Q: What sequence folds into this?
């Protein structure tokens, strides 16, 4: 069992460092070609990192950290490896057995379990994975419980804006629309049953056009499959919790996702909608300024407004951060 765990951890470690090299390559391409890459390509490049992490088979590489580890000699077919002179069979048969030499038998060696470096590292990795996974499931269960208790939005301005946004993106199945006091900004959640969360009193804070564009933005995430990617990234981050390069990459990926979605919104709504879209973002920023909480990332500005308690995130949702505790991604 422990050998299987070691093999699994070594495979994860190999995939992780290869993905780290790919992260550096993506950053290099983004830096060199930033004048020619549009926001959608910025985000699409990060999908290569996700794809690499999902592939179980690693390509052959001439450079590997395992080459520096001591390995036992391998006896390939047609080759003969002789590390020590063999004892003559006649002499070996006459050699007396001495049980007092202190050399353990094979059975005794099997019973004497000793932790190696790989044993320890594998167990540490598994402990972190289980702890992080339980944490994510607990937070998701708690969030779903709060979400189920909220009624759907019934304000005619909100329902009309949702219908227009779905028609613009040609989405037939409308997601559920909810106003929640615990969100600081519009948020999309639910891979199989999508729900759009709006801050409380959104109908009074935004005009009809601004609401329509906000909902188009959230629906664009749904149409692009960003929720599925976010779900995969969340669990990949749990598997590779020990790799700070991937933590940085996933954060950059989330940042680059918003301008890509903004570009899609303006492409569908038209350039003339830029002013209304900007006004909606300013309204959100003013709300954050009053509350002193949250962060906003958009295609027009990449503005960070941090409170003393830091960012609020919720792992299985997409949008802007929630009010609440610092472990939620939204």
A:
């Amino acid at each position: 069992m422990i050998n299987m765990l070691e093999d699994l951890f070594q495979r994860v470690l190999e995939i992780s460092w290869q993905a780290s090299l790919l992260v550096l390559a993506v950053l290099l391409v983004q830096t060199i070609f930033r004048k020619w890459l549009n926001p959608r390509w910025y985000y699409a490049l990060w999908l290569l990192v996700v794809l690499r992490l999902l592939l179980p088979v690693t390509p052959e590489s001439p450079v590997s950290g395992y080459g520096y580890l001591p390995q036992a000699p391998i006896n390939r077919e047609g080759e003969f490896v002789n590390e020590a002179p063999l004892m003559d069979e006649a002499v070996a048969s006459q050699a007396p057995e001495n049980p007092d030499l202190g050399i353990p038998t094979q059975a005794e060696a099997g019973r004497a379990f000793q932790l190696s470096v790989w044993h320890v590292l594998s167990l540490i990795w598994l402990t972190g994975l289980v702890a992080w996974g339980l944490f994510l499931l607990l937070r998701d269960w708690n969030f779903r419980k709060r979400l189920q208790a909220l009624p759907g939005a019934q304000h005619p301005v909100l329902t009309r804006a949702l219908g227009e946004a779905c028609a613009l993106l040609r989405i037939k199945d409308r997601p559920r629309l909810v106003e929640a006091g615990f969100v600081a900004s519009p948020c999309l959640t639910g891979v199989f049953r999508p729900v759009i969360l709006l801050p409380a009193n959104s109908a009074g804070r935004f005009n009809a056009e601004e609401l329509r564009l906000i909902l188009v933005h959230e629906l664009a995430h749904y149409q692009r499959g960003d929720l599925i990617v976010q779900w995969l990234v969340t669990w990949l981050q749990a598997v590779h919790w020990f790799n700070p390069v991937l933590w940085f990459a996933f954060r950059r990926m989330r940042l680059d996702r918003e301008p890509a979605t903004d570009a899609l919104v303006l492409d569908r709504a038209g350039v003339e909608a830029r002013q209304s879209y900007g006004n909606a973002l300013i309204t959100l920023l003013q709300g954050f300024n009053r509350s002193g909480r949250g962060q906003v990332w958009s295609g027009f500005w990449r503005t960070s407004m941090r409170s003393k308690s830091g960012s609020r995130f919720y792992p299985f949702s997409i949008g802007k951060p929630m009010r609440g505790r610092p472990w939620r991604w939204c």
About this structure: Residues 63-74, 288-314, 320-330 have pLDDT under 50 and may be disordered. The longest strand covers residues 176-180. The domain at 125-319 is CATH 3.30.2010.10 (Zincin-like). The two ends are 38 Å apart (CA to CA).
